[in-house]
């Protein structure tokens, strides 16, 4: 019995140390939803948690995605078939350090993205001097993913954060934008995204924030139980083992 308890103790300590260690990259999944203006999407992100230069908190670098998508205004629906491949970031994205994809249509080209989630909900200002707002679980560059349409063909979807516009003049909270459209080719036969709907600048909140009514887009995600839950559970079990051992000794 004593040997078995010590084996359990060792396993719990190892799990706890792994859970709280900032040096260990951890993988996980989160469920997400996207809605507004006739657009709905839901599914799951796959990610690796890590840190990058220029930002104090953790980031979740997305490694995969699955789910469903529909745009009733455009009359299309399909299966989310993957992320548009991007960089594995070691420093905070910026105007000089982010991924892009050739595109036409407002406000592109090119389409910018970084496929990063900020789990603390405090996405930083990383598009200076062009854009000064901050906040949200994604940043100004956002996430770019592919949709295999039910009737054939591929669409691309970009979702990003316009930042926290929650101020006395414009109490919107975090505002999001979305762009959608078919994947096509340019005049030379190279891949090009033809943006057909761009939702995120209905009014100019940078020059007239009192007039901006928001994009009408909602984006949210729900994490799976985190490594910190594992750490808390492990410590609770260790405490219970200690109390039981002291009770036996007292008896």
Features:
251 residues; alpha+beta; two-stranded antiparallel ribbon; disordered C terminus
Query: What's the order of the H and E elements?
Result: HEEEEEEEEEEEEEEH
Whole-number tally of structural domains: 1
Q: Helical region count?
A: 2
Estimated structural class: alpha+beta
CA radius of gyration: 22 Å
Uncertain runs are 6-24, 226-249
Mean pLDDT comes to 82
Total strand segments: 14
**Fraction of helical residues:** 10-25%
Beginning-to-end CA distance, first to last residue:
17 Å
Explain this structure to me?
The chain is α+β, with helices and mostly antiparallel strands. It has one domain. Helix content is 17%, strand content 41%. The chain is built from two helices and 14 strands, in the order αββββββββββββββα. The protein has helices at 2-20, 227-250, and strands at 26-36, 39-50, 59-71, 76-83, 99-101, 103-104, 111-113, 116-117, 143-149, 154-167, 170-185, 191-194, 197-199, 218-223. Strands 1, 2, 3, 4, 6, 8, 9, 10, 11, 12, 13 and 14 form a twelve-stranded mixed β-sheet that branches. Strands 5-7 form a two-stranded antiparallel sheet. A hairpin with a 4-residue loop joins β3 and β4 (76-83). α1 (2-20) runs antiparallel to α2 (227-250). The radius of gyration is 22 Å and the shape is globular. The model is unreliable at 6-24 and 226-249 (pLDDT under 50).
Write the SSE topology:
Blueprint: H1 2-20, E1 26-36, E2 39-50, E3 59-71, E4 76-83, E5 99-101, E6 103-104, E7 111-113, E8 116-117, E9 143-149, E10 154-167, E11 170-185, E12 191-194, E13 197-199, E14 218-223, H2 227-250
Parallel strand pairs: 6-12
Antiparallel strand pairs: 1-2, 1-14, 2-3, 3-4, 3-8, 4-9, 5-7, 9-10, 10-11, 11-12, 11-13
Helix pairs in contact: 1-2
């Amino acid at each position: 019995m004593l040997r078995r308890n010590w084996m359990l103790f060792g396993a719990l300590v190892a799990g706890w140390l792994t859970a709280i260690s900032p040096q260990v990259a951890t993988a996980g999944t989160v469920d997400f939803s996207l809605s507004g203006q006739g657009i709905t999407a839901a599914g799951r992100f796959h990610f690796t948690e890590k840190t990058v230069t220029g930002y104090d908190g953790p980031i979740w670098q997305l490694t995969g995605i699955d789910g469903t998508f529909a745009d009733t205004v455009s009359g299309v629906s399909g299966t989310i078939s993957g992320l548009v491949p991007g960089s594995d970031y070691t420093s905070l994205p910026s105007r000089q350090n982010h991924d892009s994809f050739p595109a036409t249509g407002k406000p592109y080209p090119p389409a910018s993205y970084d496929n990063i989630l900020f789990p603390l909900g405090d996405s930083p200002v990383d598009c200076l001097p062009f854009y000064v707002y901050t906040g949200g679980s994604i940043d100004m560059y956002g996430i770019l993913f592919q949709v295999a349409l039910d009737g054939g063909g591929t669409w691309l979807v970009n979702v990003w954060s316009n930042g926290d516009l929650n101020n006395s003049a414009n109490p919107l909270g975090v505002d999001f934008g979305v762009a959608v459209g078919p994947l096509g080719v340019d005049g030379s036969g190279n891949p090009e995204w033809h943006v057909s709907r761009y939702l995120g600048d209905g009014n100019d909140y940078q020059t007239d924030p009192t007039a901006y009514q928001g994009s009408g887009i909602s984006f949210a995600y729900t994490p799976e139980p985190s490594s910190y839950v594992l750490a808390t559970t492990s410590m609770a079990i260790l405490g219970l083992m200690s109390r039981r051992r002291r009770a036996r000794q007292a008896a």
